[in-house]
# Entry
Amino acid sequence: MKGRPLRFTPRRDAGLFAYERALAHAGFSPVAGVDEAGRGACAGPMVVAAVILQGGRGRIDGLTDSKLLTPARREELYGEIVRRAYAWSAIVIPCHDIDRIGLHRCNVTGMRRALAALDRRPSYVLSDGFPVPGLDVPGLAMIKGDQVAACVAAASIVAKVTRDRILVGLHERYPEYGFDVHKGYVTRAHAAALAEHGPCPEHRFSYVNVGRALRNNGEVALVEETDGEVSGEGCAEGARA
# Structure
């Protein structure tokens, strides 16, 4: 890989695009950010997204960690990202894959798949939390990357909005769990619904609380099959502006 080495870490007050600027100065462009949504949930899929932002006039104001934004603002920024990004992708990993393969392996594999699904090959990858092994380009794992790098923040928004939409759809099939409110995360209301109804097919049965609810309830709550796919099992989507 040609280019000058990155010899410094941008200061925290240098702005959300500081890492992309520094990497471009070192000869690494474009830069992709990758992040996930749903890692800590006990129901529903995990979604991993990758985003390459355009520089200059293609910059998007207001990017930050998706969890710090209101749902309405996330939707607004999601629309801007998918419309103006240089490239983006989203990978949906269903709950049964998480049970079968393991959460962390699914997370890392999902990051590789999301990066491979981009319409443009990045020269450098910034990931939130932990490194992504097996890439053919250099990368950097960042603590709270969605708060310090614009492309990671954009990926967190794409992943979060994509997953939230899926969970709202699941609420229509399983209204007794309140997926449209807690999005599959462990809350008091979700725990009460699990205790009363037992788990449904969209729960992660390898999780302790779900396994306990299954043992106590003795059955899995089912609904009739529909013609449409709700969870987006194993799917990927992406586009470039």
User: Anything to note?
Assistant: Residues 53 and 221 are 42 Å apart (CA to CA). The chain is about 40% helix and 15% strand.
